[in-house]
Design goal:
globular, 20% strand, 49% helix, 5-stranded mixed beta sheet, alpha/beta, Nucleotidyltransferase, domain 5, single chain
Length: 280
């Protein structure tokens, strides 16, 4: 029996399979080792009935998590999960590694992540190429859900949102300027909070101003992440993974067309491809 986990900072997707057949699955808050300490991660695991039921039966776990690029963070997360899954051999890699497998399997390609965070890398069929991206929600993550949240809140705080969107935002989230500033600068879980505004984009995805913000975010992503990578590896196919990429793939493909890039595949939920890969 195996388990496969794909985790951004906002959500972690679990699938447990036996002989290639899925027998349990769940979604829980993200398990980013840079933001979640072992005690909190064990607390989250202990609240999930599906994981409790199979904890002793799972023999192999493949984990791909945001914030797990450094070897010490990989070991820390593996050790934490090992407390809960006592009979399991656990392998931890970062989410970019998991996205690369989900998009390319054993083939080469350029893989972009647009989920709660963002990243991009050339994948040689075995490992993603090292890069200087992955700077997190404060210094990076352009094009991601938390970047979209930052753009929306900044426009709101600057009183630049169209009146109809401003009223909708205040009604849906019960926000005002003091609340937003305190929530962002004084409360924990800022990345998750910023990412939560993706729902507002989805609900208002036909609004011209919302589409402009999405295009602005994607333009930043292309200039900072994708274009330098394609320039370095000009003959490689381009793939995308993640909730933002999958949800707004029409805008993403338009942006790619603008830059003469052909996107081969967009995988909204990589957990399915990862489970297939490791089950076989």
């Amino acid at each position: 029996m195996i388990a496969v986990v794909y985790s951004g900072s906002k959500s972690a997707f679990w699938k447990i399979a036996n002989n290639g057949k899925t027998i349990a699955e769940c979604t829980m808050p993200g398990i980013n080792p840079c933001f979640n300490d072992p005690k909190h991660i064990l607390y989250l695991l202990g609240k999930n009935i599906a994981l409790i039921d199979y904890a002793e039966q799972v023999k192999r776990i493949y984990v791909f998590a945001a914030g797990a690029s450094a070897p010490n963070k990989q070991k820390e997360l593996a050790d934490t999960l090992g407390v809960f899954f006592k009979n399991s051999k656990i392998t931890v890699k970062d989410d970019l590694y998991g996205a690369s497998i989900a998009a390319c399997y054993n083939e080469t390609g350029i893989v972009g992540i647009l989920g709660s965070g963002s990243n991009c890398a050339y994948y040689d069929g075995k490992n993603p190429e090292q890069n200087n991206y992955g700077l997190g929600f404060i210094l990076g993550d352009e094009g991601s859900a938390n970047h979209l949240g930052r753009l929306l809140l900044k426009k709101y705080l600057e009183d630049k949102l169209p009146e109809n969107l401003k009223l909708k935002l205040e009604e849906k989230y019960n926000v005002d300027r003091p609340f937003v500033l305190e929530r962002v600068y004084k409360k924990p879980g800022v990345q998750q909070y910023l990412s939560s505004f993706l729902d507002f984009y989805i609900e208002n995805r036909t609004d011209k101003y919302i589409l402009q913000l999405i295009d602005q975010a994607f333009e930043s992503y292309f200039k900072i992440y994708l274009l330098p990578t394609t320039a370095k590896h000009p003959d490689q196919e381009v793939h995308f993974v993640g909730t933002v990429a999958g949800t707004f793939q029409d805008r993403l493909r338009n942006m790619a067309h603008k830059h003469d890039i052909n996107i081969i595949s967009i995988t909204k939920e990589p957990i399915y491809n990862l489970l297939n890969y490791y089950s076989n």
